[in-house]
Protein 1
Amino acid sequence: MGSLTKTVVFLCVASSVLCTPFINQLQPGQEWPTRSSVKQPYNQAEPEPTVGGVTKNEEVDVPAVVDEEKATDDDKPIETLDDVVERIDYTGAQVWKVSTMKNNAQRLINQLASEKLIASWGGNHTSIDILVKPKALENVTAALKTKDISYYVMIEDLQQRINEENPPLDENELELQDRRGHRMTWKQYHRLEDIHGFMDYLAKTYPSIVSVKTIGKSHEGRDLKMLRISDGKPSNKAVFIDGGIHAREWISPAVVTYFINQFAENFDVESDDIKNIDWYFLPVVNPDGYEYTHKTDRLWRKNRKFGYGPSSCTGTDLNRNFGYRWGGKGASSYPCSDIYRGSGPFSEPESKAINDFFKSSAVKFSAYLTYHSYGQYLLYPWGYDNALPPDHKDLESMGKLIAQAIRNTGGSNYQVGSSSGLLYPASGGSDDWAKSLNIKYTYTIELSDTGRYGFVLPASYIEPVARENIAGVRVLARQLSKI
Ligand SMILES: [Zn+2]
């Protein structure tokens, strides 16, 4: 035992006050470790990019207006006009998978999108899924046929899929709900109130291992509620998991809350791999957007901060707003775009709260997992450009083990690769930022499916998708235990 270790042990024996703030070794129920009184676990300086030739904010016009967040003391969400807006109806809208193998395909797609005839749902190097508005069906068909671009219809009537996606719970489930002490199930997509109520219930029921903390407020004043599961062992590693950055990706908070439920309810019988980790969960990063998708527009993606630019468009894509290489490729400076990057790095209260949490936390995280949908991908950095971190082979092999565990459990095939390489460059993502903080195992997981239902995945898929993915998390925990 080295002299430093001896000193620490001595201090711990002599004084619990000096002992407790050491990294990850809080006793359950106590404050989470912050940086105020401990050694900083990682260097705050932004690391240099590992690949040359790309300068920060290259070829990007930075908007002059900086939107300062308005402070509010009011705990209640701000009532906005959106609360009285009717639901957006997608009757007759279709979703097509379009081949982008031909040279001119992507250009045509961009043109149709700029004419607002279609909206992109995402794609890879071979195809793109597009939402085609009902009035545009004829024009878009003609445009694709003229250029001999192949496509097929994935969703015939989007509104019908939306109507069928989230059926009410049956009598038995409702009865169980009443007895359980919280309303959360994994047979339905729940409102934010149910998710937060469930987190509070766990903290109250299992105070020795579960604690809940609000790390900030959304633009409309909703809590950004984080839950920690930990038995307080000093030797524990730490893993951070978030969901719901994009509002419409409902499967993501459903899967993350499933993990929370499994680990919290069964902690005593969980393997040491799980117990030897302090788990931090933020299941709904974008609560305003999430509620908006339930109340008004099922397919909203961004947050709900309003009034950007002369066009007064609402919302920033939170996954383009993180502060590592913000404003580069695959992010828009146009406020009405679905991939609007915001007025500056961490200009949004939701992404800023996460950054502030990491800045003030003394925890040294071993892994950061951020759950999205859809496409079935396990993506590692970098996203900002076609570049790889120095330890990309470790990320690839861990990713393959996770994908194998998913496949062995439920049969779904997840492709593993860097996000820029497998999909397309997208700067300002939370994964790049997490990696820039030296969190080694950083992944964006694009959950099911591959386009049959897309964002509108029926609630009956929650449990199968979550079961597959918790197997992946268990493998990650097993591998971390060996390091
Ligand atoms: Zn997403």
Note: The two ends are 20 Å apart (CA to CA).
Protein 2
Amino acid sequence: MGYIRIAAGAYREMVHHCMEEKPLEACGLLSGSEGTVGRCWNIRNVNQSPVSFAMDMEQVVTALQQMKQHNEQLLGIYHSHPNSYPYPSIFDIEHVVYPCSYLIVSLNRLRPRVRSYRITGGDVQHEPIWLVPS
Ligand SMILES: [Zn+2]
């Protein structure tokens, strides 16, 4: 594919969640069908930290079950960088566990910046985000 398609509503919810949690890092999941993200799942950052995140696994399991019930796939995993650039950290790259898009919402400037990546075996490929109407 080389890009990720996201419904505008799910995109806004992701950015809003990240802005709400600032100065802490926020995290969550993006799901959808036919390769288009239609839903954003806010997940609690159990680290409650401005420089790291770990997802609440109970919420992740519940979200994955609901995706399955609705015939949706996990298409993306997002987190925010409240005080740094929209580029994955070494830690982010080393902790990739699932073959999906990895999105970073950077909040260190006036306007949020969102970037998406495909990360495989330490190799980081930027992919454009294509917003579609909800
Ligand atoms: Zn990060």
Note: Residues 79, 81, 88-89, 92 surround zinc ion (CB under 6 Å).
